[in-house]
């Protein structure tokens, strides 16, 4: 607590002692780095970042909006990127790159997230230990009025997952596009296979064998991908699961959703660059049979193992728990459960849930749950766990439009096992006692003070604080009623404090 108070005091001094303010409102002594994106074609203007909307989103909008003109899909434009550090030094000077709008529903907002693809690997703002990568993202955080939810989510993720599991590093930054001030963004890493990110071996250009690494997203948008990069599984023939709601009685629930017209509405997107149908079939069979093994262990106390080609399962001479641990890194699953239970992501049943597996000769051939993403609707922003109580991650939840109910089968499948809940309890207790959770809460409050001037500039540039009508359906009333970034940050911090206290009452040993 003393460290937090000292940080707040120093932040206040920094704000008072800012350098001279230039015409763009950003002082010579910046509190945030400035990322300047300039298109190679000066006639490009800013249309590439204001007009595009993802096709599935614009088609949905057109279905209920008479006269709606379908805009272009996101497209890359050539650009240069310059990064100016807080002391005025230039750390990236006109690096060649391409940039485009990224995201799904967020592409419909006036302030859109961006993906930057450099021509050569580039370090940015010292993130991820200063490692160089080609791909980076700038998250707009338009529906998070605190501008701090994703930063807090990544901070929690790195504290929970620890060494050996990947979670994006991140940093707040201000952005200019073709000389025009574009507001505060969160600079983060692209979700991808790469040494230092999701570290599984990508197949070579002409490599078609199945003994490679795979990076997957449990993804309701899988149908937008080409066949080679998508698949579905049948979750042990859609055998019923018992949702997890603490000590409350629950009823069995079939994986996926209760919407009969969308039984297979969540599949898998292959995020890694696989090259052959054999690779697609191998990872599809591995994932499907890994789940079957986990289900058999948890619900039938039966040990199974996969055949060498991953196509089927056979009885195994081991315990049921050993059978699970042979195909899944259960520590990583417990970590992701804890993170998911804290943040209460409304899309936990639908997307932004990532899995990697290394099927190479020297790989461990186990599912690993890592690379968490997409926090801007979580932590008390939408109509999910508004009172910060209850169990969410492995429970039956409403879809975001309240049309049907669904569950994340990976988070639920082992929750009935005493040994797995013991792992969760031990991890939770160590995490809570370390002070990492309260540190994230303190970071939210400190950042709101430290970067007050930048947040003010952002909301002078964008109208979503003054006019929340585009976000009405996205925000619960408590979040909607915040009038300033400071109020929104406090709403986030207070919700997170209550959520941690509720979960601590159940999981702390």
Summarize the structure.
The chain is of the alpha+beta class and 509 residues long.
Q: Distance between the terminal alpha carbons, to the nearest Å? A: 23 Å
Number of helices: 14
Structural class: alpha+beta
Kindly report the average pLDDT value: 93
Which descriptors would you attach to this protein?
509 residues, five-stranded antiparallel beta sheet, seven-stranded mixed beta barrel, 17 strands, 32% helix, disordered N terminus, alpha+beta
Verbal overview:
- The structure is a single chain.
- This protein starts with a helix and ends with a helix.
- The strands form four sheets. A seven-stranded mixed β-barrel has the order 1-2-3-4-5-7-6. Strands 9-11-8-14-15 form a five-stranded antiparallel β-sheet. The protein has a three-stranded antiparallel β-sheet with strand order 10-17-16.
- The protein has 509 residues and is α+β, with helices and mostly antiparallel strands.
- It has a domain of 221 residues.
- The protein is 32% helix and 18% strand.
- It has 14 helices and 17 strands.
- The longest helix has 24 residues.
- Helix 4 packs antiparallel against helix 11.
